[in-house]
Amino acid sequence: MDENQSIDVENSINSGQVFLWKKHNHFWYGINGQDILKVDSLGDIKSYRNTRVDFFRKRDDMAEIIKSIAIDNETKNAVKKYPGLRLLDQDPFQCLISFIVSSNSNIQKIKNSLERISRKFGTRVKFESQEFFLFPKPEGLAKASINEITDCGVGYRAKYVKEAANMSFLKMIDFEYLKKSDYHDAKENICLVPGVGNKVADCILLFSLNKLESFPLDRWMIRILEKYYAGQFQITTKTITDRQYDALHEKIINHYGRYAGYAQQFLFKMERENYKKKWL
DNA sequence: CCAAGGCCTGAATG
DNA sequence: ACATTCAGGCCTT
């Protein structure tokens, strides 16, 4: 097999995209919506529901993508340092709630909150003689009270979680439709959900709606761009407005191309490792 | 339009 | 110990 098509399961899971994953006896187990995925070290999947999900995006031509994005020193270093790092193709509803919960928080706390949400509102199942809680369906979270959601440790985000679930339940947010939409239409639509701004929207688009030109600009990415790209992207202010975000994204697409989202993932992973930040 | 302030929570920092 | 800061932003003023 082409080495470009190999998958680094460990680093892909530990790159800030997913939270409800744990390792057990050399296998990674993760909650993906109403399914559980068991993954071996090669990225081969056995799923609880026997569905065929291309969770590690094996369909992507990594040779072409890497050729496309590795156009400067930083991305060259990053793709060399983390071969096999993949974007993940997640359940959209779980992804939406996860990144609403993620805002102004950190990985440990996000994971803790999502686990409590699953335990409280998700279905308990046994898989490989282990107990798991599936992620709740939109209806379940939509019908929960704000207080019940707050009890999961999400703080002021509880009302966003409830409303996001309600909008998903009512198909005001239709993930299947958004998968077919182009980037800008899908982004505009997903940003209608309270608690979803530019950064959170781009995470959802990139990690669950197949929009590879998404480039989530969080504080880390802003810092990376300032640090390594010396004014190339002309970041002026600390708090970045919607307009500035759009303008910056435009420049980013012009620079990295249509697989910019992969560039983001490699750069983010590299910088967080440099700072020895903890993952799952 | 833009800038500034507030916000649940809990681990990390001093 | 105990207070303060900070963390993968967003919303309101």
**Low-confidence spans: pLDDT under 50, at least 5 residues?**
none
CATH topology: Endonuclease III, domain 1
Number of strands: 6
Oligomeric grouping of the chains? single chain
What amount of the residues lies in strands? Answer: 5-15%
Strand order of the largest sheet: 1-2-3-4
CATH superfamily: Hypothetical protein, domain 2
N-C termini distance = 29 Å
What Rg, in angstroms, do the CA atoms define? 18 Å
Helix count equals 14
Major beta sheet summary: 4 strands, antiparallel
Whole-number mean pLDDT: 96
* Shape, per Cα inertia axes: globular
**Would you tell me the structural class of the helices and strands?**
alpha+beta
Which helices and strands, and how do they pair?
Layout lengths: L8 H5 L7 E4 L2 E6 L2 E5 L5 E3 L14 H8 L3 H9 L10 H11 L4 H15 L2 E4 L2 E4 L4 H5 L3 H9 L3 H12 L5 H6 L2 H8 L7 H11 L10 H10 L13 H15 L3 H15 L6
Antiparallel strand pairs: 1-2, 2-3, 3-4, 5-6
Helix pairs in contact: 3-14, 4-8, 4-11, 5-7, 7-8, 10-11
The chain binds a DNA duplex (14 and 13 nucleotides) through helix 4, helix 5, helix 7, helix 11 and helix 12.
Question: If you had to describe this structure to a student in words, what would you say it looks like?
Answer:
The protein has 280 residues and is of the alpha+beta class. The protein has one domain (9-53, 61-274): Orthogonal Bundle (Endonuclease III, domain 1). The chain has helices at residues 9-13, 62-69, 73-81, 92-102, 107-121, 138-142, 146-154, 158-169, 175-180, 183-190, 198-208, 219-228, 242-256, 260-274, and strands spanning 21-24, 27-32, 35-39, 45-47, 124-127, 130-133. The structure holds a DNA duplex (14 and 13 nucleotides).
